[in-house]
Design goal:
Length: 508
């Protein structure tokens, strides 16, 4: 019964296929053979008999996909290849295992040989290890000395060889060659010689404006480098020469310029810096005379004050002291020049009393006598005394002002000192005494005003004494000549000068 059913199913399937083929053929143009199963990628497995078809249906292989068949064929091929690869891998594993055993044995033998060779190497090396250490230490120390010396400004790049030699000796694997030892010895001796030599060489100086200037410089041992304009700073970190922000005081800068202009073999005085630039840097930070005293154009420089010299360390009090001192000195010099000229004219008039001139006090006094020859002795004495008194103000003018300035200047300096100490104590109250720079401004004001007061008082006192002496000498000549003229007039008139006249003369 079951067989019958299968046969009927097969017949039905074939009938359906035949019908489908028939329908497909109806749509196909005449003369063309079309297989619809092939179009969908299927293929019909042929059977020679109904039994073969039945067997194919049982195996579900009646209709197969061509791609499926290709995959089956590929899988079969790969299965064969995988087996072959597996066999090859097994053979290679066995071979590598055997090779690993051989390498382990070789490694053990190599370790034993290395230990033996290291022992032989250490025995043969012996004291050479100390040589490596000494060379490494000397090379490293010399490199540090060279990089920290201004000799490198003239002889750069010496540390490269020393660094390479120190690194080579640090490995302790290779001996230094004779040439390397000679080079090390030569560099050490060269540095020793250069530190005691004055050398001129061309160099590049980094200027403050960022430019680089080519200029000849003179190196003084391992102490300083100078150029045409003065000292040059050598930056040990950058291994470069830099222009100083400003030169030190002239007493040092002049020696540097003298050394630069000197010829080979000349002996000149020079101020060296044994600290390799530290003292020079501090010297450049010292306040100059202009910074201590101030600028006469301070009101026009945006200093915030309206008096000349008020931007100095003395402040406003120092400015007033300087201005008063200038006034006193100018008045004193004006008096000195005027009295000098007057004394010269008086001396010339004294030699020629018979011809009085109006360009000098003595000539004017003698002119009074010539105008009053006919009066009595007492009247002439009064007129001569009046003439001398009339000349006195012009001869003693402004001398008292110079004297007052010589007295007031130190008092003003004392006032500035008190003001500076008040500022110092205020800074101490606010900030304590931990930073001396905070108190420096007040102390500078206190000391600078005292110095300015004394600097004004001392010359004005001397000038006052000199001017007073000049004026007294001229007045003494006038008094002497007037008394002589009166005595001569009394002698010529035959009327002796009475007691009253003598008292009046002595009072004058």
């Amino acid at each position: 019964m079951r067989t019958m059913i299968l046969r009927l199913g097969t017949l039905a399937t074939l009938t359906a296929l035949v019908a489908h083929v028939g329908w497909a053929q109806e749509d196909t143009p005449k003369g063309e053979q079309v297989n619809p199963l092939t179009d969908v990628g299927l293929t019909v497995v042929k059977g020679d008999s109904l039994g073969d078809l039945l067997e194919l249906m049982r195996q579900k292989r009646l209709v197969e996909n061509e791609e499926h068949e290709a995959l089956l064929r590929n899988f079969a091929n790969q299965r064969d290849n995988q087996q072959r690869l597996l066999d090859d891998a097994v053979a290679e594993l066995a071979e590598e295992t055997q090779r690993g055993v051989q390498l382990e044995a070789q490694e053990s033998a190599n370790e034993t040989e290395i230990a033996n060779q290291q022992t032989i190497y250490d025995e043969r090396l012996g004291s050479l290890r100390e040589l490596f250490g000494v060379l490494q230490q000397i090379s490293g120390d010399a490199r540090g000395v060279f990089n920290g010396s201004i000799v490198s400004a003239e002889l750069p790049n010496r540390g490269i060889f020393l660094g390479e030699l120190a690194a080579k000796m640090g490995t302790a694997e290779e001996l230094a060659t004779v040439d390397e030892l000679d080079q090390l010895h030569y560099l050490l001796l060269q540095h020793l010689v250069e530190t005691g030599r004055v050398s001129r060489f061309p160099g590049v100086i980094d200027m403050m404006d960022g430019e680089k200037a080519q200029s000849d410089v003179v190196r003084v041992g391992a102490f300083n480098i100078v150029s045409r304009d003065g000292y040059v700073n050598y930056n040990l970190t950058l291994q470069a020469m830099n222009e100083l922000p400003r030169q030190p005081s002239p007493e040092f800068t002049n020696t540097a310029r003298s050394l630069f202009r000197a010829d080979p073999g000349d002996v000149v005085g020079f101020a060296i810096d044994p600290t390799r630039g530290q003292l020079l840097s501090l010297e450049t930070q010292r306040a100059t005379f202009g910074e201590m005293v101030g600028s006469p154009l301070a009101p026009f420089e945006g200093s915030g004050c309206w008096l000349p010299f008020c931007n100095g360390q003395g402040g406003m009090v120092g400015s007033v002291i300087i201005l008063v001192g200038i006034v006193g000195v100018l008045l004193a010099f004006e008096r000195l020049i005027m009295l000098f000229l007057v004394s010269q004219r008086v001396a010339a008039q004294k030699k020629n009393p018979g011809e009085p001139r109006e360009d000098n006090p003595l000539g004017r006094v003698i002119g009074i006598y010539h105008a009053n020859r006919e009066v009595d002795n007492e009247t002439l004495q009064l007129k001569m005394g009046e003439a001398v008194l009339h000349e006195t103000p012009s001869l003693t003018r402004n001398i008292a002002i110079v004297q007052v300035i010589s007295v007031v200047a130190p008092l003003m300096g004392l006032l500035g000192t008190v003001i500076g100490m008040i500022q110092t104590f205020q800074a101490i109250t606010l900030f304590g005494t931990g930073d001396p720079k905070i108190m420096a401004a007040g102390i500078s004001t206190a000391l600078m005003t005292t110095v300015l007061g004394l600097c004004v008082a001392i010359p004005t006192v001397l000038l006052h004494a000199l001017v007073s002496q000049y004026s007294r000498s001229v007045l003494h000549v006038l008094d002497e000549q007037s008394e002589g003229i009166i005595a001569q007039h009394a002698e010529e008139s035959g009327a002796p000068i009475g007691t009253r006249q003598e008292d009046a003369a002595s009072g004058d």
